[in-house]
Amino acid sequence: MKSDANVCGSRSDRAGVSIVVPCFNEEAALAHLQDRLKAARVLLERKYVVQLILVDDGSTDNTGKRIQEVFADEANCIFLQHPVNLGIGAAILSGVRSASTEIVCSIDADCSYDPCALPKLISMLSPGVDLVTASPYHPEGRVVDVPGWRVLVSKAASFLYRRVLRQKLHTYTSCFRVYRRSSILQVNLRRRDFLAVAELIGKLDLQGAVIVECPTILRTRVHGDSKMQTSRVLLRHLYLLTELLGLRLWHVLFGRPRPFVRAFDLKES
After folding, report:
1. How far apart are alpha carbons 66 and 58 in whole angstroms?
2. Contact status, residue 223 vs residue 108, Cβ threshold 8 Å
3. What was the pLDDT predicted at 230?
4. In angstroms, what is the C-alpha Rg of the chain?
5. Of 38, 89, 153, 181, which is least packed with CB atoms within 10 Å of its CB?
6. Number of domains in the chain
7. CA dist 71 to 4, 30, 154, 226, 265, Å?
8. Residue 265, exposed/middle/buried by CB under 10 A (0-12, 13-18, 19+)?
9. DSSP assignment string, 153-175
10. pLDDT score of 9 more than 50
11. What is the CATH number of the domain that holds 143?
């Protein structure tokens, strides 16, 4: 993994917050992303020192070059680049590892969740909470103009995760989250792609972590194209659910968590 750091900004007594943005072929969305991040920073910087971490996950278009052009004047901004596409899970983990703050957020580059909702999510990361996830399927959340088949797949997966995991959430698959960095770095993930998002919540749950959800609005993508390959997503969720169920049964039968399989190593790629 190649890392180009361009960090600036002054020290402050305010708490730090890092925002990780995984990008794969998002050239068309970068101007909109910059606009929404500027609006979010205005809100966040009333209370926090904000660090941006933009991860080009092996894009095949001009995303890598355009990121550095569009965000060249942004204060306290780090650019990371994977030489090949590793997947959104790997990109988020790269950003979390590079963050210099205990509070780390991840957002979608297409801003289907408005980054201006981050202050609300961050406020819910109270002592003892390890992860806060956006939840459009919460009774107080909302979905706007997202294709029905995509919502159906996501809701079906969430229904199944509720049957397997301890904490009964409405949404398990959102990438729009706030993490306690020290908790996330202890989780071994086998997956690098979109399934890593659900795997992270599942393994945190099995380790006894506390996860809460924040009602949020999910809107359809306006710029660029979705990278999710939906034809096999539900089947792959079923495979992950089987793995998580086995881990939970091990805990129930033997009274201790089963050691997780070694996590993938970004250096191996």
Report:
1. 13
2. no
3. 56
4. 18
5. 38
6. 1
7. 13, 9, 32, 22, 29
8. exposed
9. HHHHHHHHHHHHSSS--S-S--S
10. no
11. 3.90.550.10
